[in-house]
């Protein structure tokens, strides 16, 4: 069998990479000076780079490799599907077995009346679908003025023009002409950073009620939908106060606006249920899915849509779709991934074994002098770094300086733990065992010790 075999030393690969490969969310010049870390292979929860380091992947790639690396069953299914039907589209009144089987499986797994799937190639594409679908839904119902979609600051919903506009990342909006019109952002439920003197629950309620205020201000006749990640991922694993989602749901129901749960990270077991909506008590009209749907082995995403929304959309031609909507190879691989998740009871493993163990270890991280809060739901967690726990002070240095210094130590200690600003985040593969969690925690603790020493050496241990 032909494989891409590397005969080059790391430094040469890095030179070629710097010369020709433009990386997402990266300053190319900075990376060229330093050289990218080049990942060669992976198994279970470990990555191997071209210098032979074995790195514990505490981020499941980009929050997606839920079943872990090296499951050759998925490769076998892909090879068989490519031999039988490598491609056909789902436009023009045609279909194929992988797309049919996967949509039926998703309807079975998704809660409530979410029984219909519109496929995309990624989470960004799926959210672009959602923008058009909810607006078209209201137009079909004779309310075309209902076009505004309400989202939150510091949300992440993708990087295309539509989905990046839905997201609330100001650094993204500063580039390339975003957001598009018709998107309105309210504040996020991040108590640690923004809660001031309020109690956590009172703050959560106030942040949810910003939705009501926004609907009133915009006029309910102009609002199509609210979109939110059950737990914000890329924004720093922001676990909302308990009361937050039930209040959001009450407001959506009261004003009759659609609720979109972006399950791209929370879906497929991450929070200890199949979907984050179940864990957080949300009943959405549409769920965005991607990432864990195929455990990242193939690029695929989609929107799982309620009976009501689908029945309205079905009444006319919806002029929307992607060449790779329901791609047969991606669908077959996703289906095999779901089989493994289900038959190996991996969601149960998260709920009953891995999460309870990690929750205990993770909360003990607050014993570290630099960790203010350490929150985790299922297998997605974050901790806030602070020079002064009682006041929840930020560091005087620019946000992210200290987080970055700690992340560098993690890399050096063969752990992928990311930073978002001055929060450290993890989302390991769902198959992680308690023994592997011990290793993760040991490396995280050591990295924080070294990070804190470096912060102090640099004179940065100072509250803002
Ligand atoms: N919704 C959510 C909630 C996501 O996390 C997307 C949509 C977009 O999916 P695609 O497949 O188009 O990337 C995402 C993606 C990060 C990071 O730095 C997170 C994502 C993507 C890239 C980087 O944490 N999430």
Strand content: 15-25%
Main beta sheet, described? 7 strands, mixed
Number of strands: 15
- Radius of gyration, in Å, reads 22 Å
Named CATH architecture of the largest domain: 3-Layer(aba) Sandwich
Distance between the termini: 58 Å
Q: What ions, cofactors and ligands are bound?
A: 3-[O-phosphonopyridoxyl]--amino-benzoic acid
Mean pLDDT: 97
Q: Write out the CATH superfamily name of the largest domain.
A: Type I PLP-dependent aspartate aminotransferase-like (Major domain)
User: How does the helix and strand content classify structurally?
Assistant: alpha/beta
State the helix count.
17
Helix content: 40-55%
**How many separate domains?**
2
> Any low-confidence stretches, pLDDT <50, length ≥5?
none
Q: Say what the CATH topology of the largest domain is.
A: Aspartate Aminotransferase, domain 2
User: In what order do the strands lie side by side in the largest sheet?
Assistant: 4-10-9-8-7-5-6
Instruction: Describe the global form.
Output: globular
Give the class-level CATH name of the largest domain: Alpha Beta
């Amino acid at each position: 069998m032909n494989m891409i075999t590397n005969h080059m030393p790391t430094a040469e690969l890095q030179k070629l990479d710097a010369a020709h490969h433009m990386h997402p969310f990266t300053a190319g010049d900075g990376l060229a000076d330093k050289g990218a870390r080049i990942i060669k292979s992976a198994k279970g929860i470990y990555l191997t780079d071209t210098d032979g380091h074995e790195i514990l992947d505490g981020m499941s790639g980009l929050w997606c490799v839920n079943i872990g690396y090296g499951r050759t069953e998925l490769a076998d299914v892909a090879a068989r599907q490519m031999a039988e039907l490598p491609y056909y589209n789902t436009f023009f009144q045609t279909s194929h077995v992988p797309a049919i089987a996967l949509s039926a499986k998703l309807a079975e797994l998704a809660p409530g009346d979410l029984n219909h799937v519109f496929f995309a190639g990624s989470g960004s594409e799926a959210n672009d679908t959602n923008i058009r679908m909810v607006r078209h839904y209201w137009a079909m119902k004779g309310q075309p003025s209902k076009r505004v979609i309400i989202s939150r600051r510091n949300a992440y919903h993708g990087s295309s023009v539509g989905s990046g506009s839905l997201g609330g990342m100001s650094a993204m909006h500063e580039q390339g002409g975003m957001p598009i019109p018709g998107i309105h952002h309210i504040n996020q439920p991040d108590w640690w950073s923004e809660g001031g003197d309020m109690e956590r629950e009172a703050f959560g309620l106030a942040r949810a009620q910003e939705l009501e205020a926004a609907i009133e201000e915009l006029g309910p006749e102009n609002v199509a939908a609210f979109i939110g990640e059950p737990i914000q991922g890329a924004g720093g694993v922001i676990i909302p106060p308990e009361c937050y989602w039930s209040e959001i749901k009450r407001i959506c129901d009261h004003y009759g606006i659609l609720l979109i749960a972006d399950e791209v990270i929370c879906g497929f077991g991450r929070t200890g249920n199949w979907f984050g909506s179940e864990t957080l008590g949300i009943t959405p009209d549409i769920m965005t899915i991607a990432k864990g749907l195929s455990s990242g082995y193939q690029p695929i995403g989609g929107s799982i849509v309620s009976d009501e929304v689908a029945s309205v959309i079905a009444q006319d031609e919806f002029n929307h779709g992607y060449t790779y909507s329901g791609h047969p190879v991606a669908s077959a691989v996703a289906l095999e991934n779901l089989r493994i998740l289900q038959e190996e009871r991996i969601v149960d493993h998260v709920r009953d074994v891995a999460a309870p163990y990690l929750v205990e270890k993770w909360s003990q991280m607050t014993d570290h002098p630099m960790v203010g809060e350490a929150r985790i739901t299922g297998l997605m967690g974050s901790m806030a770094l602070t020079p002064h726990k009682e006041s929840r002070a930020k560091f005087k240095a620019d946000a992210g300086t200290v987080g970055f210094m700690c992340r560098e130590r993690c890399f050096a200690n063969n752990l992928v733990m990311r930073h978002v600003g001055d929060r450290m985040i993890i989302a390991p593969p769902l198959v992680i065992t308690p023994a592997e969690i011990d290793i993760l925690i040991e490396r995280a603790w050591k990295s924080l010790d070294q990070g804190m020493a470096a912060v102090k050496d640099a004179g940065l241990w100072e509250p803002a």
